[in-house]
């Protein structure tokens, strides 16, 4: 019989790996943006929503809010950093009229 804590940790690690691939999935889009030096018709909305989502999950995972949630903080902190890089690239290559 598998201990419940071990099963929870294994499921959490599997979820973190899947989430990491989800956070990395826009890489081809940002490679295209970097090569063309413009964002074309892409929108920043999904990346802004993901930043907000990750920030809220990081807050939820703080030890004073929810103890023993290291897996929640690690993947969402990583996702937050990745998405902030995406937004920086997006806004760097956005025309001035779209930055407003």
From TrEMBL:
The chain crosses the membrane at residues 6-34, 71-93. It is a multi-pass membrane protein. The keyword Membrane applies. One of its GO terms (cellular component) is plasma membrane. GO terms for molecular function: sugar transmembrane transporter activity. Keywords: Cell membrane, Membrane, Repeat, Sugar transport, Transmembrane, Transmembrane helix, Transport. It is found in: Cell membrane. Signal peptide: none annotated. Gene3D superfamilies: 1.20.1280.290. It holds the Pfam family MtN3_slv. InterPro entries: SWEET, SWEET_rpt. Belongs to the SWEET sugar transporter family. Mediates both low-affinity uptake and efflux of sugar across the plasma membrane. This is SWEET4. It comes from Arabidopsis thaliana.
């Amino acid at each position: 019989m598998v201990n419940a804590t071990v099963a929870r940790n294994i499921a959490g690690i599997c979820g973190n790996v899947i989430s990491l691939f989800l956070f990395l999935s826009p890489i081809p889009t940002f490679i295209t943006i970097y090569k063309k030096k413009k964002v074309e018709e892409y929108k920043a909305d999904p990346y802004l929503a993901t930043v907000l989502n990750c920030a809220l999950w990081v807050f939820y995972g703080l030890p004073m809010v929810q103890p023993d949630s290291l897996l929640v903080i690690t993947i969402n902190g990583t996702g937050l950093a990745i998405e902030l890089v995406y937004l920086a690239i997006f806004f760097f290559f956005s025309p001035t009229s779209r930055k407003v």
